[in-house]
């Protein structure tokens, strides 16, 4: 890519903002990775989630990188909503971002039709408002044999080359420095009389103190998966979305600290097999690295315990170990039935064995499973994706798919009770999946008047109903389903 030297920016202007929007944390990890590489070329990087960044200040930024994941059927993450709504305003001038350089990296899955859709829309909208895209949009694909890194690695390489042309390196450097990038943080030892900062969760108004009222298993005792029903009571009125802040088991933390030699400094804020490492990080060794790490789900401390001579400088701890994200769960209760200060969630306790026969458990679900009645915790609230239509009388039909009608048909007694009261139409389960239950296509059409595979199958059933019983052609049925989505009459919330 040729860049006119007259367009070069002052080398003193090396401030870079990286905004990410994520649901599961992948976009945040990608943003941190981009920031780490940009520090190689002496940029001071700010990494922020779009939902905490004030949208009105975007006009004052001179260099921005957007990292955007994809949710559902091509929807933007909720963290992006506020910024995106601002950018969609019709009264914005065409030259609003004429002084802003930007680029976009999207994350998606080509198993879905609208691959990296939010990233594509954001890129086009920024250009239409006068922004200059300094680097072609990157699109990370989960289906690539190297995962997102298959597109991210070459994109970062291209980005750095562009940045050092636009913002020349200081001190007559002409090449990207090799070796370790500068650390994200620096450490200093504090005196024993220094008081630690308060817990951020205690001061975050998005989190509320909750007391445990119930922790009950709702799958059969002999079923392989332990699914729990939790009930919480709050000191404040709540709305409709919960996430809890987990913590790792003390024994696992202590084991890792001992491995790193940090035992004596952890509470103060805290030559190896080079040939094998060089092989892992090379392009030719990418498949072997994937087999060693991802395929068998090795944890970081397990890798470090095998490469025993590795010692990580503590100033790099936040570069290598991301902070635990709050785990999100869907509400399993209604404030119209229960009190505005009560909420319930359904949680599948994560326990499994890796291909190396190592027992693994979920950090947050293990924490939740050990809660007893009367225990307290901090819980955040966030609006979910799906809401029922307003302004009409709607008759609800529930299609419930599970593996066993007798062992993991969650809340079946409640569904059957409401079905008997004719409050909803409930489809019985017979060891089948939701798209199979929905083959009652004629009724679906009357009503209308993976994880990555199931949403597609469900949409195909809806399209088939429109074609078979709505008298539409295949093309018309496809457009009908697309129109339903645009009008928010078809909404999906899908999780792996």
Helix/strand layout:
Layout: E1 15-21, H1 26-38, E2 44-49, E3 63-68, H2 81-87, E4 101-108, H3 117-128, E5 132-133, E6 138-141, H4 149-166, H5 200-203, E7 207-217, E8 227-234, E9 242-244, H6 250-260, H7 274-281, H8 286-295, H9 300-306, H10 317-320, E10 327-329, E11 342-348, E12 351-353, E13 359-361, H11 363-369, E14 376-381, E15 396-399, H12 412-420, E16 424-427, H13 434-437, H14 441-448, H15 454-469, H16 474-486
Parallel strand pairs: 1-2, 1-3, 3-4, 4-5, 4-6, 15-16
Antiparallel strand pairs: 7-8, 7-14, 8-11, 9-10, 9-14, 12-13
Pfam family, one: Flavodoxin_1
Protein name: Flavoprotein-like protein
Cofactor: FAD; FMN
Number of strands: 16
C-alpha-based Rg, rounded = 26 Å
Q: Into how many domains do the coordinates divide?
A: 4
CATH topology of the largest domain: Rossmann fold
Spell out the CATH superfamily of the largest domain: Flavodoxin domain
The appropriate CATH architecture of the largest domain is: 3-Layer(aba) Sandwich
Largest sheet: 6 strands, parallel
Distinct helical segment count:
16
Spatial shape = globular
User: In what range is the share of β-strand residues?
Assistant: 15-25%
Whole-Å distance between the termini? Answer: 39 Å
- The class by helix and strand makeup works out as alpha/beta
Given this structure, which CATH class of the largest domain is correct? Alpha Beta
Task: Extract low-pLDDT stretches.
Answer: 1-12, 240-245, 267-272
What percent of residues adopt helix (DSSP H or I)?
A: 25-40%
- Whole-number mean pLDDT: 80
Protein name: Flavoprotein-like protein
Keywords: FAD, Flavoprotein, FMN, NADP, Oxidoreductase
Domain FAD-binding FR-type: 205-389
Cofactor: FAD; FMN
């Amino acid at each position: 890519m040729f860049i006119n030297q007259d367009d070069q920016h002052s080398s003193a202007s090396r401030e870079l903002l990286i905004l990410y929007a994520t649901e599961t944390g992948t976009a945040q990890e990608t943003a941190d990775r981009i920031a780490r590489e940009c520090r190689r070329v002496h940029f001071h990087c700010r990494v922020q989630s779009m939902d905490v960044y004030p949208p009105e200040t975007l006009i004052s930024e001179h260099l921005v990188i957007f990292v955007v994941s994809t949710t559902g059927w091509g929807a933007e993450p909720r963290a992006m909503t506020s910024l995106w709504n601002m950018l969609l305003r019709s009264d914005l001038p065409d030259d609003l971002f004429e002084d802003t350089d930007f680029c976009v990296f999207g994350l998606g899955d080509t198993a879905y039709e609208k691959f990296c859709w939010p990233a594509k829309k954001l890129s086009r909208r920024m250009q239409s408002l006068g922004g200059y895209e300094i680097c072609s949009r990157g699109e990370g694909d989960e289906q690539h044999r190297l995962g997102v890194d298959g597109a991210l690695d070459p994109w970062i390489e291209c980005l750095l080359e562009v940045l050092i042309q636009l913002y020349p390196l200081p001190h007559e450097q002409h090449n990207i420095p090799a070796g370790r990038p500068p650390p994200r943080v620096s450490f200093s030892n504090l005196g024993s009389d220094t008081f630690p900062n308060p817990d951020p969760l205690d001061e975050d108004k998005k989190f509320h103190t909750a007391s445990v009222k119930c922790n009950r298993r709702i799958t059969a005792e002999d079923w392989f998966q332990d699914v729990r029903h939790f009930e919480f009571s709050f000191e404040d009125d709540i709305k409709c979305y919960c996430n809890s802040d987990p913590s790792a088991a003390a024994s696992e933390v202590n084991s890792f600290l001992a491995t790193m030699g940090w035992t004596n400094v952890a509470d103060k804020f805290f030559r190896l097999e080079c040939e094998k490492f060089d092989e892992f990080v090379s392009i030719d060794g990418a498949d072997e690295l994937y087999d060693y790490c991802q395929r068998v789900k090795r944890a970081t401390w397990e890798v470090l315990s095998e490469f025993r001579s590795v010692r990580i400088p503590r100033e790099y701890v936040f570069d290598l170990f991301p902070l635990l994200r709050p785990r999100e769960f869907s509400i399993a209760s209604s404030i119209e039935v229960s009190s505005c200060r009560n909420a319930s969630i359904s949680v599948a306790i994560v326990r499994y064995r890796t291909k190396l026969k190592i027992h693994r458990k979920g950090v947050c679900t293990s924490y939740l499973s050990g809660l007893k009645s009367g225990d307290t915790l901090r819980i955040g609230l966030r609006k979910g994706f799906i809401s029922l239509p307003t302004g009409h009388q709607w008759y609800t039909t529930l299609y419930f798919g599970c593996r066993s009608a007798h062992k993991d048909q969650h809340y079946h007694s409640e569904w059957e009770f409401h079905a008997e009261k004719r409050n909803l139409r409930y489809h019985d389960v017979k060891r089948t999946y939701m798209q199979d239950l929905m083959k009652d296509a004629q009724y679906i059409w009357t009503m209308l008047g993976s994880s990555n595979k199931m949403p597609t199958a469900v949409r195909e059933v809806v399209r088939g109903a429109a074609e078979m019983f709505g008298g539409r052609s295949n093309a018309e049925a496809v457009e009908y389903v697309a129109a339903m989505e645009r009008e928010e009459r078809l909404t999906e919330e899908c999780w792996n």
